[in-house]
Write a structure and sequence with these properties.
The structure is a homodimer of 249-residue chains.
Chain A (H helix, E strand, L loop, with lengths): L7 H15 L4 H10 L1 E5 L4 E2 L7 E7 L2 E7 L18 E6 L4 E4 L5 E7 L3 E7 H8 L3 H27 L2 H16 L1 E3 L2 E5 L4 H8 L3 H13 L4 E3 L3 E4 L2 H8 L5
Helix pairs in contact in A: 1-2, 2-3, 5-7, 5-8, 6-7
Chain A binds a DNA duplex (30 and 30 nucleotides) through α7.
Chain lengths: 249, 249
DNA sequence: CGGGCGCATTGACCTAGATCAAGAAGCTGT
DNA sequence: ACAGCTTCTTGATCTAGGTCAATGCGCCCG
């Protein structure tokens, strides 16, 4: 009743519920799903420890996360497993509010979710989620559609990693991100990067130095402007997209 | 009634039906799905022309296919669009009998399915498939599970493309393929490669020459033996897996 | 069985990007 | 405002793998 904001937990659950109903699920199913979902709040930099025994579905309510794949060195022994020991880890995807991430348990590999900034999310045990959702085909179908979209993005990234130059990767990264979280400002487009240069590098399969150099080049050519660590402005999205795409030879 | 084999079409439909029922779908749903599926037979090297206006699901009954992603040069004009003009195309995945491939229509990109050898398959229009399957949640769930598996494989490939050396990629490719289509022979494992060196290269984001060189090196070290173009024997799968995986430094 | 074509192998060289090594901004907290 | 971090930028080398080019071999077909 107070004028103060809802608790993050209630707000997150409400977001999830209404996103389901928008996908034409019945509100009854939504209620039951909310009942089996567990709310969680992550602060910047912390990771969601993944039980190695089961798959999860994670709904992002607010903030931003990265999905990290790490070749599972068998329990890197005692070494304080804080994030910085990330040698040779690969970022598989970034995810933003409203999206559902599927974190599959995968023998031999270690897949984790880490928060780029303070993040609220709702976690489901995949089997349980599907058991409940099975009563409502439209919900399962919605989840299927989302996972096919994720597959599509994943394939697009593969093409990027396969045959593109550093310059193209960085350009493509910026254009794609602009489409997902950018705000148009007349001709130009502004993005506030939630991730570090290192994150960008690891997601593109490059080194942080190379990413930095490509930013410098694009900046020199007037294709991007930066302000501070995280402010990026793309004065000509089309020109940049052209850089990203089919520059033969 | 004759002793002769079934027609490929009937055999393919029967495979599809029984794979569905194994996944606990009702046989009634299976019948209805078969009714909307269209059988098709591809000969070695030919491509499934993808209508650009809709997504498809393709069930592989026999043979082998590659899923190709090509940055869509706007209608490469008249140039006889036979397969060989594949400049800078990337192979997104290989698929084998029993698997369901989802081919999503993707603006700006051209995704196609090509047969590595003579192949029988059943094609569905995704929306129609799901409309029918919606009556039977366990079928939709099965499709979802398969697509999550595809996502998982896709992520694994991303890690490969991201941070691995040519040697590791080739080793990983062979080990992964061995697990999918290899036949054990005591300690060793035999594979008959359905794809060319060029295909391997394009799927790993390497050149055909580099792949060849890596084969030569691994051969020299006794980790693989080859016979003819397509015969491969892996005398020590574990040693090879170790090459593929976490060789730090 | 032998000719010919396409795939595979091998070699010589050369760039894009990794690696190593300083510095220069940015964002904290006091 | 300043100290002390972390993250970013820039520069100088080094090398894995790409590119170009020649040769060899498996496989199909007459």
């Amino acid at each position: 009743m107070a004028t103060a904001a809802l608790t993050p937990e209630l707000a997150s659950m409400e977001m999830f519920r209404s996103s389901l109903i928008r996908d034409s699920g019945s509100s009854e199913t939504a209620e039951r799903l909310c009942a089996v979902g567990r709310f969680s709040s992550l602060s910047r930099g912390s990771m969601l420890w993944q039980n190695p025994d089961s798959d999860r579905l994670v709904y992002i309510a607010s903030g931003a996360v990265k999905l990290i794949g790490q070749r599972a060195g068998p329990e890197d022994s005692d070494a304080h497993a804080n994030e910085r020991s990330a040698r040779g880890s690969q970022i598989l995807a970034f995810h933003f509010p409203g999206e559902i991430v599927s974190v599959l348990h995968q023998a031999e590999r270690d897949v984790r979710l880490a928060a780029l900034c303070d993040t609220d999310l709702v976690i489901f045990w995949t089997d349980q989620f599907l058991d409940v959702a099975e009563g409502d085909p439209s919900v399962i179908r919605a989840v299927l559609t989302r996972s096919l979209e994720a597959l599509q993005r994943s394939r697009a990234r593969m093409m990027q990693l396969g045959h593109k130059s550093a310059r193209q990767r960085v350009a493509d990264f910026l254009v794609t991100l602009a489409q997902r979280i950018g705000t148009m400002d007349g001709e130009a487009c502004d993005i506030t990067l939630p991730m570090s240069r290192r994150d960008i590098a690891e997601s593109l399969g490059l080194t942080l130095e190379t990413v930095s150099r490509q930013f410098a080049d694009l900046r020199a050519e007037g294709l991007v402007a930066t302000s501070g660590r995280s402010g990026v402005r793309l004065p000509d999205l089309y020109a940049l997209a052209r850089e990203a795409g089919q520059r033969f030879s």
